[in-house]
Amino acid sequence: SELIRGFLLSGMPCPSSCPPGLLALMAPGLALMATFSLPSQAGDRRALPVEKPPGVKGRTLILLDVNTKSPVRIISENFLSLQLDPSIIHDGWLDFLRWLPSHAAPTLDGQSWSPPSLDKALASLRFVRNRNPVLCMSGSVVPGGLAISLFSFPFAVDIVRSDIALDKQKGCKIAQHPDIMLELQREKAAQMHLVLLKEQFSNTYSNLTLTARSLDKLYNFADCSGLHLIFALNALRRNPNNSWNSSNALSLLKYSASKKYNISWELGNEPNNYRTLIGRSVNGSQLGKDYTQLRSLLQLIRTYSRAHLYGPNIGRPRKNVIAFLEGFMKVAGGTVDAVTWQHYYIDGRVAKVTDFLKTRLLDTLSDQIRKIQKVVNTYTPGKKIWLEGVGMTSAGGMNNLSDSYAAGFLWLNTLGLLASQGIDVVVRHSFLDHGHNHLVDQNFNPLPDYWLSLLYKRLIGPKVLAIHVAGLQRKPRPGRVIRDKLRIYAHCTSYHNHNYVRGSITLYIINLHRSRKKIKLAGTLRDKIVHQYLLQPYGKDGLHSKLVQLNGQPLAMVDDGTLPELKPRPLRAGRTLVIPPLTMSFYVVKNVNALACRYR
């Protein structure tokens, strides 16, 4: 139940380090990703009422305009974040973390940035093992569990081939490993993958030990890469009266403070599931008292007297979980800096490719957002809310499905719904782990959601804009709701992308129809030059494909340290946008000079 999260803060200078797949999303054009809802009312998920233009019959043309005067939402610059599974400690990948110096690798704007990873566009890196009940600490720290999150700045890190020097006074250095060690590590990781899957399906978990040296490696890796760590302390250590036993946490806090580690904190993970995991439950009010106790401990240590604290990291907000959150907010709503919860759409063991095309499934998140917001706003109006763990499927996902092109429909729509409804940060599960929800495979080759996230970060800014749509749409039968299969979101283009002047607007569109759709830009967007970034599956596997093409060109790493150039396809001014069936796409409308987008 412990985790490590990392957030990339856009707009910060890019240091000379960052993790590989992580860096790509963190490139200079990185910005928070935000989306807006189809209707002019942000957050409304209902189908847009559209009228048939007089005298027109059988047309499929959709007219689209955007309100450019003011944003409907402004999201955190850290909006898009990532998660790493602590199994990298278990399977040995931690020893292969690599700090990379900044060298010239092409970015979207033609400038240079630290080698590929998630690019400045990715907002965070989270280290989490959702189902392991105890993450133990050994070595110079008293044994006990913790979880770690990484708040990242725009840098790159290659987590494949080397270790980070621990002597910070001599600077960050790379300790090279022979290729044979990398091959042996891959074999070890593959074996551990089977062990972890067996644990997951049997619902029995072994403890994970994090030594003091491992903690030092992890922190130095983060520090050299410009990441900010967030540790989730073990909440399962309990006194006889069921209150939290903080003795181990205090030892960890003192150790980290002695090393002057800059860390933010959490306590536990999915506390509503503790009875299932350890046979002992903790209610919301008790966890609230535990958080108050943790805040008091932090204030006793000068290094952490003003440290950020996040929680309670609850699971899907069903009725009992909402009651848990209410109890927590009554006691500790003012103690945490942001309220956190997690969401997984479907059981990865039974998922089918058609599941990812169901609009009803896409809309389930919107209902959950409103439930969480209602509770939070009742007790602490205006408090930030984070979706701190999100995956397309639970139970580790399914090969050739949750890591395929089809899963991108859920992921991109998730980003749109969260931004449009005011969720400040989202942490994607996962960058790399033992399952199939990750962004890169075991050889660190980018998967479809990686490319999707990278484009999002490079093109999408934090300001969410309202859109106005008119066109033809079938009428609902009595008692039935039409859920949109064509989903459109709009933002100011990322300020970090110097290919586009301020005032430009980026649209991103999901077409779940099995036919193409035509969109005509109107109003302030009319007769503007547009750059198209169309993502489609590549190869014979179709929606099951793990490969994608951008504007007809396959996407792949140039080499281990270089991302391909993501070239747009220019469309002439006034041209109708033709959206192919079952695709995702981004469109930058240039030189709109939108008032909402001129200034940060």
TrEMBL record:
Gene, per the UniProt record: Hpse2
N-terminal signal peptide: none
A Pfam family annotated for this UniProt entry: Glyco_hydro_79n
GO molecular function list: hydrolase activity, acting on glycosyl bonds
Organism expressing this protein natively: Machaerirhynchus nigripectus
Highest taxon listed in the record's lineage: Eukaryota
Alphabetized SUPFAM superfamilies for the sequence: (Trans)glycosidases (SSF51445)
Name of the protein: HPSE2 protein
GO BP terms: extracellular matrix organization
Family: Belongs to the glycosyl hydrolase 79 family.
GO CC entries: extracellular matrix; extracellular space; membrane
